[in-house]
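Colleagues,

For the teaching module next term, I've prepared a clean inverse folding example: a structure given as tokens, and then the sequence designed for it. I'd like students to try predicting residues themselves before seeing the answer, so please don't circulate the second half yet.
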């Protein structure tokens, strides 16, 4: 099923205990699309400013499956830029700055050729933009969204409406608590189900993730990684691995069993991404490496 994503394409500055990078390619949509492209084609709808470097476009092109015809370049505007800093064991991060740039303007235009997309991922961006994208996709069969503290705090009404229109939500455990007021992850996830979605995937960093579905629950650990270099994009590459798998799966993509496999694919993709800064690791990743680690993980979690 044709997969489409909207979200941010950004210029990131990141500090971790392992080093730092200034003005590198980032953004929720970027990480998602790169990850999803390992499973099949992915259509990208996003806006950048005229400062968006050609070298970043070339990096995206290295992932053969990314259809970049929906990336709108706006003259006179600036690309979304974000800075973050990780401390200690990298389980928490501090946002240093968020420069909305094009995000504060109108939503990106969707090419007419993308309107037949069936699988939709609404990566982190303003919920109003996520809603508009959904409305432009009448043939969607599966719609999943991500969100984060900034939007929970600043765009709650749009987010609540979005939750009534999507099949699934992925978010971090602290964001689940912020959204629902419930500190217990399972209780928070169940609360989210009452707000609309059929399933919710709550990510807990190095402690793995939990799928809470109207038909059941599944939990997976994270892939045991010894050296984390930069966790940026872990959530987006998790979602890319998960949605890329679902978009190319034959059969019911919303069953607990299929979603459990999908979150395992997400877990493996994220485990590669955090091995280096920006998209450095994903640009060298091979299908054989992915398959090997997936098999290893599947054997590890079988009880
Ligand atoms: P993750 O680590 O998976 O949460 O994603 C990090 C990426 O999200 C970075 O590359 C940022 O450019 C991007 N990002 C940071 N803040 C936001 C935001 N408020 N909305 C959308 N994307 C964001």
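(Answer key — instructors only)
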């Amino acid at each position: 099923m044709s997969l489409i994503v909207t979200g941010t394409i950004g210029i990131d500055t990141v500090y971790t205990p392992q080093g730092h990078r200034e003005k590198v390619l980032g953004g929720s949509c970027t990480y998602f699309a790169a990850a999803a492209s390992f499973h099949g084609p992915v259509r990208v709808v996003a806006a950048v400013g005229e400062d968006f470097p050609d070298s970043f476009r070339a990096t995206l092109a290295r992932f053969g499956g990314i259809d970049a015809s929906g990336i709108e370049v706006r003259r006179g505007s600036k690309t979304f830029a974000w800075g973050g800093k990780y401390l200690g064991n990298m389980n928490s991060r501090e946002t240093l700055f968020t420069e909305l740039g094009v995000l504060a303007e109108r939503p990106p235009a969707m090419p007419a050729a993308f309107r037949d997309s069936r699988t939709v991922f609404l990566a982190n961006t303003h919920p109003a933009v996520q809603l508009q994208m959904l409305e432009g996709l009448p043939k969607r069969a599966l719609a999943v969204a991500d969100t984060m503290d900034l939007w929970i705090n600043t765009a709650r009404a749009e987010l609540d409406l979005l939750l009534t229109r999507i099949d699934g939500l992925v978010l971090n455990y602290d964001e689940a608590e912020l959204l629902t007021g419930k500190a217990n992850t399972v209780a928070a996830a169940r609360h989210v189900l009452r707000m609309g979605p059929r399933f919710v995937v709550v990510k807990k960093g190095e402690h793995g993730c939990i799928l809470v579905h109207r038909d059941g629950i599944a939990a997976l650990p994270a892939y045991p990684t010894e050296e984390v270099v930069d966790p940026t994009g872990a959530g987006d590459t998790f979602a890319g691995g998960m949605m890329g798998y679902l978009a190319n799966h034959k059969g019911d993509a919303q069953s607990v069993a299929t979603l459990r496999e999908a979150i395992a694919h997400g877990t493996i993709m994220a485990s590669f991404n955090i091995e280096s800064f920006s998209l450095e690791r994903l640009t060298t990743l091979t299908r054989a490496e992915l398959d090997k680690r997936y098999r290893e993980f599947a054997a590890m979690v079988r009880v």
